[in-house]
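WARN  no MSA supplied for this record, continuing single-sequence
INFO  ligand: adenosine monophosphate
INFO  echoing inputs
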Amino acid sequence: MQIVTFTRSTPDTAAKVEVNSSGVVTWGDAATVVNPWDEYSLEEAIVQAKNTGGKATVIAIGPEMHNEALKHSIAMGLDEAVRVQADDLDMTDSLGWATLAAAAVQKMGNAELVIFGKESIDVATDQQVYQTARKLGWTMLSYVSKILAIDTANKTIKVEKVLEQGKQIITVKLPVVISVMKGINEPRYPSFIGIRKASKAVIPVWTPGDLGVSLPGKTSELVAYHNLPARAVQTEIITGESVQEKAAKLVDKLLEEKVL
Amino acid sequence: MSVFVWVETFEGAMNPSSREALAAGKTLADGLGVGVTALVFGGNAAAIANEAGQYGATTAVICDDATLNDFRLEPYAALLTKLVQDHSPKVVLAVATNRGRELVASSAADTNSGMIAEAIELGLDGEAVVATKAAYAGKVLGKMALRGTGTKFVTIRGRAFKPQEQNTSASITVTTVAAVLTEDAIASKIESFEQEVGKVNLSDAAIIVSGGRGIANNPKNAPADAGDATIWKAKDGFATVITPLAEMLGAAVGASRAAVDAGFIPYDHQVGQTGKVVNPDLYIACAISGAIQHQAGMRNSKLIVAINKDGDAPIFKLARYGVVEDVYNFVPALTEELKKRLGK
Ligand SMILES: Cc1cc2nc3c(=O)[nH]c(=O)nc-3n(C[C@H](O)[C@H](O)[C@H](O)COP(=O)(O)OP(=O)(O)OC[C@H]3O[C@@H](n4cnc5c(N)ncnc54)[C@H](O)[C@@H]3O)c2cc1C
Ligand SMILES: Nc1ncnc2c1ncn2[C@@H]1O[C@H](COP(=O)(O)O)[C@@H](O)[C@H]1O
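INFO  complex generated
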């Protein structure tokens, strides 16, 4: 089965991210990494492509910085990578993004399963995931914690899905878009051979023209980024002769603060 | 031309967080000079619509159809999209729960409308909806605007908006509509559902008690047949030290990624950049160092208490109150003290 997955490069999770005086988000000279949630979707794409005797392709939408995540994906074992570049795409415009994502999946021809990570840790929330599914006209299953079976003959997939209240087993007809949770698998590390393959890989770039789409009018606007208001915490270390005394003092404080 | 608020239900009852959406919707509706319409789909919709009326809605559209009893995206999104097309509401709003996110985003895509996800502040600029949301794992804030004349879609972060006081004498005008998709047209079939009883939802919790890697430093000895002694000690610590404190406070149990990855506690409990983002009134971090990725998930807690035996642990920089103690000595004493003081 042909599987498509998406990824992007995000600032290293330990980076200090700030808005500079020109209003631009910066992370100093910290490296970018593959979006941490995507380690699980990339792993799942590799595994399911192998299980179904198919191929897994990874796509990033956006500027060249995302090649980094694509190369990491190839090093992990994805079969091929593509980058979609649209110069006038505002990365916070989820409808524009979903339009390109859906067109790119369709251009693959015979894809039947799209796997997303839960969300990207930097710019957005997971709204692009659902919007891509709608633009494709495919069924969407979010927060998948296990793929239980893929029946390529009858074209169905059975998954376990996490709800706030428990777990659901659900079967749907293919094609389908899913988003996967941490815990669905143990992401592998890039192999030595994979890293060599990635370093040599030439990643094709598709434009909206290649995809035969134009971007829809922008419907949301990023007004500005701001730094967090300074968190004026004054830490008070609770002291005392015994743990009992400290516990009593802490409870006094918590009652005063009215948080109990 | 009202403000639509999707009221989330589970097994015939309103999710309490939907009251926050009704209140946030009411503020926008007042500013726009319109009313709030509650959308209630699935079993017991009429009674839930009444309840929505007591929390700020003036009208409701309900669809009590068997296909909608359990949430499935296809029939819910098809119905929401049809209602948006028929009524052109000014705003569609819901809480950013697992279901709320996907429903609102899907209908925004169906109608080619703008959306802001997980707003923590909302306002109006004329007819435009403006919102603040966290970005870069909460390290910066983004201000977004939805302009133009079309319907604007918004989800709000749980616990970021205060519900209104219940007004038991309020009444509501209810309209009933039919479902859009029949069962045959719905591709997903739910085969089974296993409810986790007593599962405290971290995102809804007013108090969270979290444990980290240090919970493995349990002074008890693991029994000879325990398998991995570290895991046994940590699990025992979560069960006999962390959970009793949480139960005393009616709190949810959280964890650091180190605790989750080491197999001390299931992943659902992870707080942080690759876990859940929480904003309780009180967050008690036990044996957690306070790595930046952990902070990303809990720094918005109103009050943070840190218990750590290392007085230099970074978590103390975020904490309002710190206790430099071994969790195994201090937490049982704290639980005992609370038992006395809270009269339990
Ligand atoms: C991509 C990425 C994503 C990540 N996402 C997350 C995330 O979502 N959430 C998250 O939490 N982490 C995340 N991390 C991991 C993070 O960097 C830290 O490794 C992790 O938070 C450390 O957990 P900890 O504080 O429990 O452990 P440690 O850092 O080992 O701290 C343990 C603490 O316990 C104290 N201690 C030990 N024994 C006791 C005792 N008996 N009594 C009192 N105190 C004691 C020690 O003094 C120490 O401060 C992520 C990392 C990466 C790279
Ligand atoms: N520019 C992008 N290119 C490829 N994948 C992306 C991009 N932005 C987000 N994604 C993926 O889409 C999923 C959800 O992202 P988001 O909607 O941004 O939270 C994650 O798996 C992301 O890696």
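Residues 207-342 of chain B form a domain with the Rossmann fold fold (CATH 3.40.50.1220).
INFO  checksum written, moving to next record
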